[in-house]
Amino acid sequence: xxxxxxxxxxxxxxxxxxxxxxxxxxxxxxxxxxxxxxxxxxxxxxxxxxxxxxxxxxxxxxxxxxxxxxxxxxxxxxxxxxxxxxxxxxxxxxxxxxxxxxxxxxxxxxxxxxxxxxxxxxxxxxxxxxxxxxxxxxxxxxxxxxxxxxxxxxxxxxxxxxxxxxxxxxxxxxxxxxxxxxxxxxxxxxxxxxxxxxxxxxxxxxxxxxxxxxxxxxxxxxxxxxxxxxxxxxxxxxxxxxxxxxxxxxxxxxxxxxxxxxxxxxxxxxxxxxxxxxxxxxxxxxxxxxxxxxxxxxxxxxxxxxxxxxxxxxxxxxxxxxxxxxxxxxxxxxxxxxxxxxxxxxxxxxxxxxxxxxxxxxxxxxxxxxxxxxxxxx
Length: 378
Prior knowledge:
With about 375 residues, this protein is of the alpha/beta class. It contains twelve helices and 14 strands. The protein folds into two domains: about 10-150 and about 285-365, Rossmann fold, CATH 3.40.50.2300; about 150-275, 3-Layer(aba) Sandwich (Rossmann fold).
């Protein structure tokens, strides 16, 4: 054999004997790189920060125990302040510069809608985003997994509760973007299933610039209940404006509602606000999941519990279980296949149910109420 041919042959043998897992972005023999673009500031600040901190707490716990198959998890969370352009820039940086294995816990419906095509084009899994938008779930995407119920399922629970007690005069205030319109559609569909129609609806902008106009619309409708298909500070701003009109209206809000933001704007007027939640109650360790969550949060000096940080923690926990099941020779293909094999898996009182044709892992929804101190009561 000629020297040139021998060199080519040896090179080929070297290539085929390299562990293929090491050839994939975000994986080395010592670490797995996971990225996130979260709204840790801006209108969704407390929620995005909660997602980030809960995930970081779980990854920290895993790393202290030696990681997954000997690999530590390096978690890179970039703030996008709920700005779509910044989300796109962050995701491009995470994929192209940081070479992440996967994205986890991205926040905000329009932001995730902008990020998903970028992740899909790069064959990067986008796991456990903080959004319940039906639009993101209706078309199956093998790289996309959710761990919470959809906004439609939250709205179904809310409307079921309201109509069970005989209330039918229901209106909607919705954020004027993809998230808000998805929420509005969820209310309308839940009402239609009961042969009912909403009284009317009013859009609001995320910067609260038109809440007076929306309140004027609601004054004319005079609903018994207003369902808030909103997220961030605008929820509190609208309710405060509405209450200045001296209307006796009951408010129902979605899980993307921060009790801290509500309390800071409304003071004691938080009393009686009902919020749907897609996670178990964080302040009472009534399940193994919440016990572990509280211990992990304390280990990183985070003692302010929240539904958002529970979701971040649970998202990271399910993600790591997928890594463990994929084994030592990790690849994205093996990771996705391992997730698809997780049928009715119990995570300490919270069940995840994936399959090769279903990547939406849960339909869990609960209703909570706020007291005068802005604290959730269960």
